[in-house]
Amino acid sequence: MVKVDDVLKTIDSNENFSSEFKEDMKYLLVLLTQKIPRLDLETLNSKLVDLKIKATDNQYMTKMPTKYVESENTIYINLSESSKDYDYRYLLTRELLLLQTYKDDVTKPRYDNFTPIYEGYASICANNLIGNEGSLNSYEDEEITVNLLGRIVGLESLEELFYNNNQNLLLDNLNKAGVKKDQFRKLLDLMNYNLSARNNERGKSMLSSIQRELINMFVNKNLTKEEIENFRENLYGNNTVFGNKNKYEGVTPVIYATFDNATINNLDTKKTKTM
Prior knowledge:
This protein is mostly helical. It has helices at 4-13, 19-35, 41-48, 88-99, 115-130, 140-153, 155-164, 168-176, 181-199, 207-218, 225-233, 252-274, and strands spanning 52-56, 66-69, 74-78. The protein has twelve helices and three strands, in the order H-H-H-E-E-E-H-H-H-H-H-H-H-H-H.
């Protein structure tokens, strides 16, 4: 079994890292292992043996500030974004968390169609662990979406997907919540298009459409008053958490109204069926 000290030694032995960068990586690794017992140290240790950090000005690779390329085991830093107000300590923490989803174990393949869920979960974890002192957040949509999805399937199923690449609990909980496979497939398609469109500047955020799908999935459940209130509160999360209080100000009331109407209609239907 790989232990923290093993990974720290691996970081020290990586000739691609500067001394200063090694210290930063070791600090983050210790912090992550203290806070996240489920972190896959075996995968991290394997990747960190020869992980490279490179700068790129290739606009076709990504519009995001950082990007991991598995085939090269390289984290690229986008030079065209480097002058903007990103917190690179936060971004590096995200990349470390995501790194352990690319497992060498062939029995635990990474589900590429779940990429927006991986991205959102890693962003939430990084934000909770070290915060994000930059004014920019490229994965705000994914954070909000994963936050809402967790209200439907439960946090444990998201953890199982992220740390073990195991989708079974998530799919089981969706089924128990009355969500059909086609519904979830449509949600994933929207989430993936939304992420890739922003990445390649093909279009604006599709978060409102994604939230409508999540609302339809959520109201299938037998809901308590507390569940309804929590979901409504998290439709745009606490915007201060995501670093942008005003970004969704104009559309929030519309989504709230959509949710309230869907909830009322669903509850009325269930009352009628039980009469």
